[in-house]
Amino acid sequence: TKAVTVTTLGALRAAGEKITMLTCYDASFASLMDRCGVEVLLIGDSLGMVCNGHHSTLPVTVAELAYHTAAVARGSKSAMIVADLPFGAYGTPEQAFANAVQIMQAGAHMIKIEGGAWLAETVRFLTERAVPVCAHIGLTPQSVHQLGGYKVQGKTTESADQLKADALALQAAGASMVVLEAIPSQLGKEVTELLTMPTIGIGAGPDCSGQVLVMHDLLGVFPGRKARFVKNFMEGQTSIDAAVGAYVAAVKDGSFPALEHCF
Ligand code: KIV
Ligand code: NA
């Protein structure tokens, strides 16, 4: 199969075909997901929680993300590889670029950073220097101590308007894609209609251009609290291949997320 690029993602959005994305942290799962047709593999800083047992994503380092990114890059053939910049790694555009270089040289095709319009300058700085950027707005887990917990965002008119302004500013600055986490479905739909870049939802409703889940949630192996937007795709399946295949099929045909996974 052909390599998934930033051009492919734009074409999928334009064609109205849903984009499938999963987190991935090692070569064996990268190979499996690639084989199952997952278009985007995300080396999320969620690895601090699901692989290392930390209670938040804050302790994750650039070196850890680079290590896991290299493993995923070795295991996958055609998927697009996106990796997070961790907490504290993009306080200035220059710092973001230096850390993005580490992650790109480990094998990422795009980096993801959490935050709104305040990051526009950083997005421009990175994209001018050939680092494609996926933005991440709504519930941004690196801000958990600022937000006062893992809470649904964009519920008031004021915060919904702010989120739309953030999305537009990040797109204008050169972002290629945006993750929308834990926002009302209606806002996920409105933001998607407002933008030309693809939106990838996790708890943002069925109208985003694509969906993402943490692989440990999809397989039902994460022992922590389950968010509303999580679905265990191992249920009713007898192999991991079949569970990932069921996820891809459910995203493509629009049956995931269902109402019960949405805000
Ligand atoms: O780190 C992560 O897994 C993420 C996804 C939940 C979007 O950022
Ligand atoms: Na993340």
Automatic annotation (TrEMBL):
A Pfam family this protein belongs to? Pantoate_transf
- What is the primary gene name for this protein? panB
Residue spans crossing the bilayer = none
- Pathway(s) annotated for this protein in UniProt: Cofactor biosynthesis; (R)-pantothenate biosynthesis; (R)-pantoate from 3-methyl-2-oxobutanoate: step 1/2
Binding residue positions for Mg(2+) = 45, 84, 114
Q: Name one GO cellular component term.
A: cytoplasm
This protein's name: 3-methyl-2-oxobutanoate hydroxymethyltransferase
Q: Where in the cell is it found?
A: Cytoplasm
**Which catalytic reaction applies to this protein?**
(6R)-5,10-methylene-5,6,7,8-tetrahydrofolate + 3-methyl-2-oxobutanoate + H2O = 2-dehydropantoate + (6S)-5,6,7,8-tetrahydrofolate
The catalytic site is made up of 181 (proton acceptor)
**Primary location class:** cytoplasm
**Known cofactor(s):** Mg(2+)
- Extract the GO molecular function terms from the UniProt entry: 3-methyl-2-oxobutanoate hydroxymethyltransferase activity; magnesium ion binding; methyltransferase activity
What this chain does, per the record?
Catalyzes the reversible reaction in which hydroxymethyl group from 5,10-methylenetetrahydrofolate is transferred onto alpha-ketoisovalerate to form ketopantoate.
